[in-house]
Amino acid sequence: MSISSEHKPLGKQVTGSLHALSPIVELNVGGEMYTTTLSTLKKHPGSKLAEMFTGQPKLRTDSEGRFFIDRPGTYFKYILEYLRSNQVPTQCIQDVYKEALFYDIEPLIKQLEDSPQIFGELVARKQFLARVPNYSENIELMIRIARAEAVASRRSSVIVCVVRTEEDAARCQDALSSLDMDKKSVVKFGPWKAAPSISDLLDCIQMDVEAKGYKIAFQPHVAEKGFRFKSHDFFYKFLFTWW
To answer: Which residue has the higher pLDDT, 222 or 119?
Structure first.
């Protein structure tokens, strides 16, 4: 959104309280330039955005005297659209949600949380993963193991044991004793008490590792030697590709 050359309300002499400034405000949000009004920015008095422009200026200015906010400027236009017309964005929902949280615009936060994208992530997926013991720690452990095994290799793999019930956990432990592998390198997920299946959890693991920038795929891990349990009932190989 371009700045109109007709308005230069702030200039380089930003002094005194905001009450003494023109009601027209120029902003530099992460390199994107916007023009709006103080009343728009202060529409929700309890928000962090409103507090930025209440009383004494709480923001630095750029070389042209525009108030500078060090946030992604691309998504600020959606914040302004909502403040101006109560229009809830239908694009870039996840990113706009992050910005709404930063600016603490509670009505927008609540409406975005009702959208299918945010509802599915916060209420469905995140609530499920919260019931999987040590989920986040295990994701980090997987990555550490994969990176340790990546020396002079194009790919490295991590064996994951996924168990949904306590009974499966006991059977998995027996299976581990039969597998010809270093038990310390096997990352165990579960058990959990929730509706999603093992395949759902595997999809979550892949999704969250890929969100960290890694290229990853998985497949059932079949033991080279036989034992009384089918290894693919519990064990999966996650393959990291580095180049």
So the answer is: 119
Residue 66 tokens read as: 């525009």
What domain count does the chain have?
2
For strand 186-189 and strand 155-162, is the pairing parallel, antiparallel, or unpaired?
parallel
Q: What are phi and psi of 127, to 5 degrees?
A: -65, -35
Give, in degrees to the nearest 5, the angle at Cα 26 between 24 and 31: 165
**At 56, is the secondary structure helix, strand, or coil?**
coil
Residues 6+ apart with CB under 8 A from 230: none
Domain, as residue range, for 230: 132-241
What would the two tokens of residue 73 be?
């400027």
Q: Are 194 and 123 in contact (CB under 8 A)?
A: no
For the chain, the first-to-last Cα distance in angstroms comes to 38
65 in the Ramachandran plot: left (φ > 0), alpha (ψ -120 to 50) or beta? left
CATH code of the domain covering residue 40: 3.30.710.10
Between CA 63 and CA 49 the distance in angstroms is 22
Residue 4 confidence (pLDDT):
43
Q: Measured between alpha carbons, how far is 126 from 44 in angstroms, rounded to an integer?
A: 29
Which pTM does this prediction carry? Answer: 0.69
